[in-house]
Structures are given as C-alpha cells and as structure tokens.
Automatic annotation (TrEMBL):
Domain CheW-like residues, every copy: 12-156
Pfam families recorded: CheW
Organism: Natronocella acetinitrilica
Name of this protein: Chemosensory pili system protein ChpC
InterPro entries: CheW-like_dom_sf (IPR036061), CheW-lke_dom (IPR002545)
GO biological processes: chemotaxis; signal transduction
Length: 160
C-alpha cells in the first residue's frame, strides 16, 4: 500500500486512523473487514517471531494476529484497556492467508482522506520495514502500512 493508493486525484478515500502505542496507522476502510473487541490470541506451537501474537477465531477461520510495532523493531506491545483487533483483508493472492489481524490500542476513527488533506512526512523509515509511508493526514501524523511486506512476513512465518 502506498500513499498514492490512499488518495485518488480529486476524490476522497474513506479511511481509518488506527491507534497504536505511539502513533496511528492509516488504512482505507475497504481493507478493513471488521473491528472486533480484543481477546487473547491462541499461542502458536513452536518457534515463531515475537510479533506474531498467535491466532484467533473469526467467522470460522483462524486468523493470525500481528503486533505492528513489534514487526518494526519494537518490543512486546501489550494490549491497552480499549484494545481492538483490526481484521484486514489480505491483498495478495494466497488462499492460505485471506485475512490477518493487527493489534490496535484503541477504537479507530473514521476519516475522509482528500488529496489536499494529506502530505508526506520526511521521516526516515529504514528501521520500520512494515511502513510504506509516513504522512500527515488532516493534521494527524500516521503511518501507511506496507501490506505486501506484512503479508509476506506472515506467510513466511506460518507456511515456509
């Protein structure tokens, strides 16, 4: 996902600002399948990266849960009192991974992103591989996640 996919010329994109520990994620609402209350994911047996928190049951499927801060080098994101799981539609063409969830630290806020309301931030993202861009969306600093990177990492951790 890139900044360009967030804003189409002369059109606003319904999006969600998703609270993380120290920042926000910005995603188009079409990528979000559902926002559900937090419940502890079922731990995965074996040796998995710490950012892969486990799986939870959603509509008859076992969905992997990712701590976004941890995949970017953070350590041990713990769910806040108002934590949620953001069930996201995987954009890759992998039948084994149609959805995954990201731990959010609160209730997301619906925003309309218009080309005039978003600008790039000049922050280096070298140490945040799951971030496609840092932006200012209607005055709020936010990260646009690199969905391809996230899906590749989840797939490698679970299926390779």
């Amino acid at each position: 996902m890139t900044r360009e996919t967030m804003v189409a010329e002369d059109a606003s994109v319904r999006s969600l600002l998703i609270p993380m520990e120290d920042s926000y994620l910005l995603l188009p609402s079409t990528v979000v399948a559902e926002v559900v209350g937090y419940s502890d994911p079922e731990p995965l047996p074996g040796d998995y990266p710490s950012w892969l928190l486990g799986r939870f049951n959603w509509r008859g499927q076992r969905i992997p849960v990712v701590a976004f801060e941890d995949i970017n080098g953070g350590s041990g994101a713990l769910p806040a009192t108002r934590a949620r799981l953001m069930v996201l539609k995987a954009l890759g063409d992998r039948p084994e991974l149609p959805y995954f969830a990201i731990l959010a630290q609160g209730i997301p806020r619906l925003v309309s992103v218009h080309p005039d309301g978003i600008e790039d931030l000049e922050e280096p993202m070298d140490d945040a591989p799951a971030v496609a861009a840092a932006v200012l969306a209607h005055g709020e600093p936010a990260f646009i996640p690199d969905m391809e990177f996230l899906e590749d990492e989840i797939y490698r951790a679970l299926f390779d």
